[in-house]
Fold this sequence. Notes:
The structure holds 2 protein chains of 2 kinds. Chain A is of the alpha+beta class. Chain A has a single domain (6-88), classed as HPr-like (Histidine-containing Protein, Chain: A, 2-Layer Sandwich), CATH 3.30.1340.10.
Amino acid sequence: MDQPAATRKVVVANPSGFHARAALKVLHLVREFAAQVEIVLDRRRASAADMLQMLALGAGQGQELILEATGPQAEEVLDALQSLFAAKFHEEDDGTQNHP
Amino acid sequence: MKRLQGIPVSPGVAIGEALVMDTEGFRIPRQFVARDSVEYELERLRQAIEAACQEIGSNRDVVSRELGEKYGAIFEAHLQILRSAQFCDELEEMIRQRHYAPEYAVSRVMRRYAEVFQKVQSRNLADLADIEKRLLRHLLGRRREELSGLTSPVLVLAHNLTPSETANLDRRFVRGFVTEVGGPGSHTAIVAGALQIPAVVGTGPFLTEVSGGDLVIIDGDKGLVILHPDAETIARYHHEAEQIRSLAARLESLRDLPAETADGVRIELLGNIEFPYEVEHCIQRGADGVGLYRTEFLYLGTEHEPDEEEHFQAYSQVVRAMGSKPVTIRTFDLGADKVPSLPSPEDERNPALGQRSIRLSLRHLPMFRTQLRAILRASTLGDVRIMFPLISTILELRQAKMILADVMEDLEEHHIPFRQDLMVGMMVEVPAAVMMVDHFVEAVDFLSIGTNDLIQYTLAVDRSNKDMVWLYSASDPAVLKLIEQTVRAAQRKSLPVNLCGQMSSSPTYTMLLLGLGLRQLSVPPSAIPEIKKICRGVTIADCEAVARHALTLENARDITNYLKGELRKRFPEFDV
Lengths: 100, 576
């Protein structure tokens, strides 16, 4: 990826970790913006447009991720993602906390 | 070297390389594609991915609609995994650069991701397995038999074999079966019998100890499986296999002699077949006809319901080959869960007692009528007989016959020829049918006793449950009394009565069955020479004395021991 236009640190706060349904929400959210996002955990990277890469990160509760964005809406997409991580992917809302 | 004891279900000895199928289905072997077919294989991969995506998409929609979006989301996640650019790139790279077959590439890539998921303790490991299975199913489609890419003989080792898996195996190369679960009446047993290859079931878990390509010995006579045999054991089994071949050669000489007892009573020895090609096995052994043509293979291993033409081709091939000898075609005898084109049963907690066989035919009339039309059309080619399975009540039989009459009328209207006088019979395999047999004999042209199910229903024991297999015995006096009662009722009306369960193929029971009055036995073609030899070596009076004594005994073990003793006295060469 080129030099990112914006970066943000987020923490996986929900107990079940960054699992398939959380990744799915990230994927859908990023699509709404004119931006490309990569997620970095330690030295591993995943495109936020690629489900398999995101799952292969295997980020668990409490782990810190770095979000890097490029594109015209780089800032906006990271704002939205930060809220999503902060809201623990709205897991409580769909009542599936223990059943990702 | 490791020995496993299982239940012997099909005799013979096989020594060869293992093909391991685990609970996920086949283990995909290393397979490569030719350079010039890379583009074709890539296209095949793309189509399979597309088909899998479509399927997942519609699952998602149904589940979301019926259970809510959050449940549909897991399918959406699967869909997105399949749409992962990295995943597709890796697959294409393996096919393009390394010339892997798409199936092999999929299993390699999935294996790699599974390792990553495992390392990071991902909760989505099971999702990967699910996606892999789905994708492989689409890639392999109807060509599943090519899956194993068999080019040399193998012994198939599996947890359990489903009917469709066995139906799809490339039989030219399969030399034996072993399954971890299952009993004598399991599907594996029947197919192994049909293929005339040794099989052992119910060994308990062992698949983790063996890999594809390992040397394995299957002893289908003793129920033994030997993993990694040493040189001495291999030599001993080679010697044994040689002796078996020479006994088979001696029995071969009986081929053109009739199955006639020493006192001149002609016994009809018929073949049980599952696949059309087995008609050749019947002819090679001088069978007097086909006593049971199972038609389930038509419905298995295919997504669509077989059409009339497919039925007709399968039937006419066998009928033509048998010439003027009788061919008894049994109508559909499966549960709804085995047939993809039928709606899944909703309340099937107990499939053996549920919607299966004739009950299902009577509920799905278009399917039933298609089969009946094809049988009737084939009836002009020889001596075709129709047999309805699992009849429990008179009403069921009347209903089945009424539909048959209706189909006949339909054919007549369209001037399609068939035999008006073809014989119509039923299987006697539910104890209720025996209780009511005096009524049934008024309504059919013949009876055929199906001992596999009759034993299961009489003794209330699941014939594929290895923990209960001790109770499942053809020697049980209750079973013998039901057989006797059925034969007597048929004799009073001078109706032909046949016995076509596995019981008929065991030499242990031949004298007993003749003594009970049976004059027709239907057996797997491979058993014909042995049973014929016994028929030719006994008199009816002798057999009747054996049957009379057996009926006085009070339990299965005593009866089995008695029958084996009597057999050994007269035929020391049969090691039973």
